[in-house]
Amino acid sequence: MAPSEVGFVGLGNMGMPMARRLAAGGYQVCGWDVSAGIMREIAGLDGFTAAPGITGLGTDVVLLSLPDSDVVEHVLLAEGLLDSVPAGGTVIDLSSSDPARGRARAGTLTIMVGGSAEAFSFARPILAAISPRVVHAGDVGAGHAVKALNNLMSAAHLIVSSEALIAGRRFGLDPAVMLDIINGSSGRSGSTENKWPNYVLTEKFDAGFSVRLLVKDMKLALGIEHATGTPSAVSEAVLAAWETALGDLPGDTDHTAIARWLDRS
To answer: What is d(CA 218, CA 214) in angstroms, rounded to the nearest whole number?
Structure first.
């Protein structure tokens, strides 16, 4: 049976919307974040309590939404979070999330889970409070692998879509008209259906996932390709292009700003 109280560590762009979904689903969320401002915020939210410290969550289930694997390891081991979880407790790592902050708020994320069938059965009701689409991807590590490979594909879609749409505009075409045509044709992708209309054409560039984190995920995915002996020439070229952009841009730049960077190159 799923618990009524859960701990949540990492209440940033992705973590806070997911934690709010849990609270809205009836869970009492004991939260922790390094930001003092966020800790003050959650202390006044319905369904939340602020943990006295990272080892003071006091829950059998702890969810993590942290920037990368190094931070996850540091929090769990160096800061002692893992030792503070009661025997038989569960840690659910949601880190390295899909670049779609709005989907986290709306509860339309796809949550891919790696673990045993028993662990998945236990965690599924909790994760279903975040999003109804919860998929058992396989054994431990499978969820992270799918996320990394998905983000590699997403990065490839976005950069090639941006190159094509910028070329079309320079040719004299209206990007909005191009998108209307493409989204009913074989060239469509999440980039043409969501990122370009909502974040590029509007010049908001605030989809909620940084270039630095996307490049990190792409490297993880490329490592999987190399380890499995998969041809990866195109993936390597895409990563190289994104790494060039990362060298020119602040690391926390939103990944949709790749279109603006390309247009100015």
So the answer is: 6
